């Protein structure tokens, strides 16, 4: 035989409140595994893109990246030196970057014996080449960044050393 006792006043409401609060607290917890994996993957994608850009840049300048890193043959035709790069397809966080979201690029350069970099702004997203023919002879270091339509600038590519003689 079961004996049912009537609930005390407010006891049912308190019970429902406790259940609702525990559900909310459980639902609001962050899944740290997912965010760590996403961050790690974004970093890997970003590093791969930077290495690809550097390899392209070295090949275009006729420099010799290591065979392991080179995906493109060096152009040793004797034509004027030109920096060339491929537009990135992802942001540093791994999210997609459509061509329409790129507003331009910045070329950072300096003579190897100097500390300060100069900047050449390229405000046209379709410009992915820059001729070095007007630069004075010397040993240079070049890096490139991408600028999006909101003015956000990527980190610099790995530097490429170029001897212009």
Q: Which characteristics define this entry?
A:
FN3_dom, Immunoglobulin-like, two-stranded antiparallel ribbon, 165 residues, 2 helices, Fibronectin type-III domain-containing protein, globular, FN3_sf, alpha+beta, Ig-like_fold
Question: Would you mind describing this structure in some detail?
Answer:
With 165 residues, the protein is α+β, with helices and mostly antiparallel strands. The chain has a single domain (37-164), classed as Sandwich (Immunoglobulin-like), CATH 2.60.40.10. The chain is 28% helix and 22% strand. It has helices spanning 11-27, 32-60; strands at 82-84, 102-111, 118-122, 129-131, 138-148, 160-164. The strands form 2 sheets. It has a 4-stranded antiparallel β-sheet, covered by helices on one side. A hairpin with a 6-residue loop joins strand 2 (102-111) and strand 3 (118-122). The protein is globular and about 45 Å long. Residues 61-80 have a biased composition (Polar residues). Residues 61-97 are annotated as: Disordered.
Question: Briefly, what is this?
Answer:
The protein is of the alpha+beta class and 165 residues long.
Q: Determine Rg (CA atoms, Å).
A: 28 Å
What is the level-2 CATH architecture name? Sandwich
CATH topology: Immunoglobulin-like
- The named CATH superfamily: Immunoglobulins
Fraction of residues in helices? 25-40%
Shape assignment: globular
- Percent strand equals 15-25%
**Count of alpha/pi helices:** 2
- Total strands: the figure is 6
> Structural class of the helix and strand makeup?
alpha+beta
Biased composition (Polar residues): 61-80
Region (Disordered): 61-97
Domain Fibronectin type-III: 64-165
Protein name: Fibronectin type-III domain-containing protein
């Amino acid at each position: 035989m079961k004996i049912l006792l009537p609930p005390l006043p407010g006891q049912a409401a308190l019970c429902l409140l406790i259940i609702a609060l525990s559900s909310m607290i459980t639902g609001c917890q962050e899944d740290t595994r997912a965010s760590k994996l996403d961050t790690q993957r974004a970093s890997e994608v970003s590093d791969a893109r930077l290495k690809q850009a550097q390899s392209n840049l070295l090949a275009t300048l006729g420099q010799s990246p290591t065979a392991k890193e080179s995906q493109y043959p060096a152009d040793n035709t004797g034509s004027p030196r030109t920096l060339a790069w491929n537009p990135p397809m992802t942001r540093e966080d791994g999210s997609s970057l459509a061509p329409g979201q790129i507003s331009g690029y910045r070329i950072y350069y300096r003579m190897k014996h100097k500390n300060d970099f100069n900047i050449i702004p390229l405000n046209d997203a379709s410009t992915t080449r820059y001729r070095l023919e007007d630069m004075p002879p010397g040993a240079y270091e070049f890096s490139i960044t991408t600028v999006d339509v909101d003015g956000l600038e990527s980190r610099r590519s790995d530097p490429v050393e170029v001897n212009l003689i």
